[in-house]
Design brief:
The chain has 332 residues and is mainly alpha-helical. Among the domains are: 1-85, Glutaredoxin (3-Layer(aba) Sandwich), CATH 3.40.30; 88-220, Up-down Bundle (Glutathione S-transferase Yfyf (Class Pi), Chain A, domain 2), CATH 1.20.1050.10. Helices cover 47% and strands 3% of the residues. The chain contains 13 helices and three strands. The chain has helices at residues 5-8, 19-31, 49-54, 73-81, 94-123, 130-151, 164-179, 183-186, 190-200, 203-209, 215-218, 234-249, 256-270; strands at 11-13, 62-65, 68-71. It has a three-stranded antiparallel β-sheet, with helices on one face. The protein is elongated. The N and C termini lie far apart (142 Å).
Amino acid sequence: MVATAERDGLTLLTYPGNVQALQTLIVARYNGVHVAVPPFQMGADNKTQAFIAKSPLGKVPVLETAEGSISEPAAIARYVARMRADTKMYGASFFEAGLVDQWVEFAKSELDLPVGMWTFPVIGFVASNTATTERARQDLGRALGALQSHLASTTYLVGQTITLADIVVACSLLNAFKLVLDSTYLQPFGSVVRWFTTCVNQPEFVAVLGETKLMSEANPPTTEKAPAKEKAPAKEKTAEKKGGDEKKKEKPPPDPAKEREKLEKKVVKEGGKKGVEIEGASDMGACRCGLRLHPHHPHSPPKLPPPLQAGSTSSAPRSSRPTATSTCSRWR
């Protein structure tokens, strides 16, 4: 027999779009339980004494039952899931029930915080913070990696049908898939994407969530080729080529040894011409006639005696002293 809100007196107090409440409404759809959701103004209704008595911290959602109120989203979802055993929302065995609890805890401890840290700035709940967003990206990636490993070999998280585990984990990822997870980020998590899209397209999900549009589908990765580089104008190319040719024509600095050898050859070749001055000949120790000076060179100046010391006289007669006038006329 299908349960009804009138018979069970179920009322869910929450603001519209709260994913922590949506999971309970989806479970209720699978179990055929109608849950009333009256208008609720966050910041006002949750501040009343009547609400504080049901949820001491003023948090939503809160489920009102005929026996009293239940707070905390996971506890509310579990309560509604257990209302019918034949739908197997809590698994087909005691062991599977434990696995369902495992994934519910996984969602609360590994998914809710990083998803909130990443999506709340996008929604406008908090100011954007680059460091916080990057940390959220890394933490969520690690959690999605664990899901990817599990779902690579199975269709659903527990058993062969959708359970509370799939509903809670999918709702924890809902805003991330809709707002921040692009195709590039999701590329390593193909099995997770397959599982998520399978869940949100089930009639019970659609009845509560409507059509779920993934960010990765709205913004597929671009496959356009990078634009070709513009060709430089012909003049610029010509100038560049000319500059390159000039650089190529630049000769290395002359080798001093080779230059000196050339100069010596030139001196020898041209030195015999009268009146020819060979640049550098004097530095090479050569006569102006072109021949290198040595002791037996005919144009070499004779060796003169050392200069006289003060107060002394030369013992040799003046006429016998060699003079420069007896040498090559070019030295005169």
